[in-house]
Amino acid sequence: MKNVKFETNLWWAIGVLEKEYEIPVVMEANAAHTKVSYTARKTTVKELLDAIVPKDSFVWRVEGGVVHVIEKSLATRPDYPLNAPIERLSEAGDYNTLFRKALEQVRERNFPEPVLLQEGWNIKKHPCINIKAHNTTLRKVLDQIFLNGGIPYSVVRSQNKDGSYYFLVVLQ
């Protein structure tokens, strides 16, 4: 990567990596408004992520060709829906349908903090793709959809007015 300059928050920086540099990257966090600053004439993705991802509160790792920047409080939580195991999923359809089918796999488990798909997001006519998953996690299934369809996503932990929490999968 050449002539990289960030003077923003972590969410925005991750979005720039995905959109401008075409790096498949997913943000999984509460509200990551951490300010980041980075300038380099030439850098690698690893050097950049090591510099902008706050090590005290986030981890970053590559899984199946997708970079995940995950808030530490979520990374190993067994009741975090993206860590949920998926025994088998074999579906064909457009991207919205596939995201919904994947999320249905974990909704049935009644996690204390449910996972929702961003409503109102409309994908124009896209070709049908196939997803086949066996003994994996929801994260890896969503990554397959991302990589096969070019539909990036992020996960935001949000709070309802009643104080309860939920996870929102935001398609970008």
Notes on the protein architecture:
- With 172 residues, the protein is of the alpha/beta class.
- The protein is 27% helix and 40% strand.
- The chain has five helices and ten strands; from the N terminus they run βαββαββαβαββαββ.
- It has a six-stranded mixed beta sheet with strand order 4-5-2-9-10-7, with helices on both faces.
- β4 and β5 form a beta hairpin.
- α4 runs antiparallel to α5.
- It is globular, with a radius of gyration of 16 Å.
- The chain starts with a strand and ends with a strand.
- The mean pLDDT is 87.
Output the keywords.
172 residues, alpha/beta, two-stranded antiparallel ribbon, 10 strands, 27% helix
Q: State which percent range the strand residues make up.
A: 35-45%
Shape: globular
Q: Could you list the spans in which at least 5 consecutive residues all have pLDDT below 50?
A: none
Oligomer: single chain
Structural class: alpha/beta
Radius of gyration: 16 Å
End-to-end distance, in Å? 23 Å
Q: For the residues shown, what is the average pLDDT?
A: 87
Helix content: 25-40%
* Biggest β-sheet description: 6 strands, mixed
Find the count of extended strands (DSSP E, 2+ residues). 10
What is the string of helix and strand elements?
A: EHEEHEEHEHEEHEE
> Widest sheet: strand order?
4-5-2-9-10-7
